[in-house]
Amino acid sequence: MTATHAVVPSVWAQRLGFAGLVPFVLLAMATWLAEPGHRAFAGLALAGYGAVIASFLGRDQCRRGNCLDCDREIARFFLSVR
Predict the structure, then answer these.
(1) What's the pLDDT at 59?
(2) Alpha-carbon distance 80 to 10, whole Å?
């Protein structure tokens, strides 16, 4: 059994990571606390921001080749979407 050493991100990387949570928190609070006429917009903005973040994570996995371990048709789909 080998010991693995965790790499601790720098202070700036940690700050940027936590800064990425700010839109999620603010938009989630807005869906609850905003006036009823603006809640739908806040929910739509929250879903859109989440979709953008998920697309970045999905692209990172495809770039590393993790999505290409599957069936050929699915691999063609991922490459065409990219």
Answers:
(1) 66
(2) 36
pTM metric for this prediction: 0.61
Give the max Cα distance, the chain.
Answer: 58
pLDDT mean values, one per 10 residues, the chain (82 residues): 73 90 94 94 94 78 56 61 54
Helix-then-strand count for the chain, H and E: 4, 0
Residue for token pair 């371990």: 69
Domain boundaries, the chain: 11-81
Residue partners of 42: CB distance under 8 A and separation at least 6: 27, 30, 31, 34
Residue 71, CB-side half-sphere exposure with 13 Å CA sphere = 3
Of 64, 71, 63, the residue nearest 81 (C-alpha): 63
